[in-house]
Amino acid sequence: MLKGNGVRRSFWRPAAISCVATAALTGCGESNPPSPANVSTPATTSTAPSQPASEQQVAAVSPPPTLHPAPQAKPLEANATAESPISPELAAAFDRLLSPASDEAAWEKTHEEIISAGTEAAPLLIRELKSDDVIRREQASSLLVLLGSSAEKAAPALKDALQDSSSFVRANCAAALAQFPEHLADAKEALIVLLESDEPELRRVAATNLALLGETASDLVPQLTLALDDSDEQVVRPIAQLLGEIGPAASGALPKLQQIAFEKEGEVQEAATQAVRKIEAKPVELKTIEAPPIP
User: Fold this and answer.
1) CB 3.0-4.6 Å disulfide test: which of 36, 39, 77, 143 passes with 24?
2) Helix (H) or strand (E) run with residue 84 in it
């Protein structure tokens, strides 16, 4: 199963960090962004703090800021669900991710520890996804994207979080849900809304994850065609690729794709050119040849 791309915010205080498809804030979520700083992450995306969302770049690397001590988790519950106990070790690791005392190497090691726990981490992240603290929700949502199929038990919580007040939580939850065919409809609806966001990194996350849908996104051709007008080539390129995968059913997007192929350069031009070829391709007709009668 492919892992989706989410929005990553970092919550440590090191010298330089990285975040993928990320938007970082320095100390809290969208509601009260602290002082700016940059951050970056792995190609699959994760969570990191710093710089104001408007200044973030997807898959961009930058140094994070000094954070105020993160709020502590609610008292550890015995179980996230009736049958899924929360690991105290993983709960402690999650708190360390939000600690301003962590350096970059320690943060990355702890981050990988939680992801490597797979399904064992799901109960903890489900709990944190329901936290009153937006930073904890954003961190949990980014980790759930990276869990891939191991996040399946979190699907109900992910669906509920599509209504979260943080657009970064919504983006990550949509990216996580897009990995499960049975939740594709909910993911598509959320990603299309994010594709119209004022935040460039959220539009990129939406475009990148929509591009994984292939022909199943054929019902979105009108919205995808509008997205070709985006000024950000990191949005336009995956959308053009997706329209190509949809094929002849995306013929309504041909005029804009042809314009991009003619006017643009580089990867976005190549994506549009390939999309035009795929959409215009005519299915091969198999002709039946009758054998001559046997005398």
Assistant:
1) 39
2) strand 84-85
Q: Which residues contact 143 (CB under 8 A, 6 or more apart)?
A: 46, 47, 111, 114, 115, 121, 125
Task: Report the distance separating Cα 147 and Cα 140, nearest Å.
Answer: 11
- Give me the half-sphere count of Cα atoms (radius 13 Å) on the Cβ side of residue 105: 0
> Of all helices (H) and strands (E), which one includes residue 85?
strand 84-85
**Spans of all domains in the chain:** 17-212, 224-280
Calpha distance 121→140 (Å, rounded):
10
Matching residue, tokens 């200044």: 55
Classified by CATH at the fold level, domain 17-212 comes out as Leucine-rich Repeat Variant (1.25.10)
Q: If DSSP codes are grouped into helix, strand and coil, which group holds residue 9? A: coil
Contact 239/260 with Cβ under 8 angstroms? no
CA distance 121 to 284: 49
pLDDT band at 288 (very low <50, low <70, confident <90, very high): low
